[in-house]
Amino acid sequence: MTAIDVLLQRHEDGPDHGAPEVPTPLPSLHLTVVTCMDARIKVFDVFGLVHGEVHILRNAGGIVTDDVIRSLAISQRKLGTREVIVMQHTSCGMATFTDDEFRDDLAKDTGLKPTWAVEAFREVKDSVKQSLERVRRSPFIPYTDNVRGFVYDVQTAALTEVH
Ligand SMILES: [Zn+2]
């Protein structure tokens, strides 16, 4: 039995099968949260969220990549969001290797170098700052007055703003 099979069974057994509670795709807090895919981060709990309040964009590192800009542009221009949180975190897997190492591994194993940037980092605060600047300077993102960055401590749950 695979993990996918386990989840399909949970869906069948669940009390409401995850039925949506919100009729509109427009987040009621008009806010998008960009964060890491790290399984330890309980995004809803970190910010006391309920369903329907925010868009959540997750990837390796919580990095503002071109694809995150794509989603933010749609989020703001078509779905009414006006504010952005970028939240990266302590002990992130993205700080355990370098771009060159990973690119070399991929090239060695597959014969192909990726066309995308790996975006590994050493200092999480610098990575948050870089992502904030990408949002603020993007010509596709119309609302940049309230774009704020944070580091979440996965040991203590402390949230530290990055200026
Ligand atoms: Zn991470």
UniProtKB/TrEMBL annotation:
<dbReference type="InterPro" id="IPR001765">
    <property type="entry name" value="Carbonic_anhydrase"/>
</dbReference>
<dbReference type="InterPro" id="IPR036874">
    <property type="entry name" value="Carbonic_anhydrase_sf"/>
</dbReference>
<feature type="binding site">
    <location>
        <position position="38"/>
    </location>
    <ligand>
        <name>Zn(2+)</name>
    </ligand>
</feature>
<dbReference type="GO" id="GO:0008270">
    <property type="term" value="F:zinc ion binding"/>
</dbReference>
<dbReference type="GO" id="GO:0004089">
    <property type="term" value="F:carbonate dehydratase activity"/>
</dbReference>
<comment type="similarity">
    <text>Belongs to the beta-class carbonic anhydrase family.</text>
</comment>
<keyword id="KW-0479">Metal-binding</keyword>
<comment type="function">
    <text>Catalyzes the reversible hydration of carbon dioxide to form bicarbonate.</text>
</comment>
<protein>
    <recommendedName>
        <fullName>carbonic anhydrase</fullName>
        <ecNumber>4.2.1.1</ecNumber>
    </recommendedName>
</protein>
<feature type="binding site">
    <location>
        <position position="89"/>
    </location>
    <ligand>
        <name>Zn(2+)</name>
    </ligand>
</feature>
<feature type="binding site">
    <location>
        <position position="92"/>
    </location>
    <ligand>
        <name>Zn(2+)</name>
    </ligand>
</feature>
<keyword id="KW-0862">Zinc</keyword>
<dbReference type="Pfam" id="PF00484">
    <property type="entry name" value="Pro_CA"/>
</dbReference>
<feature type="binding site">
    <location>
        <position position="36"/>
    </location>
    <ligand>
        <name>Zn(2+)</name>
    </ligand>
</feature>
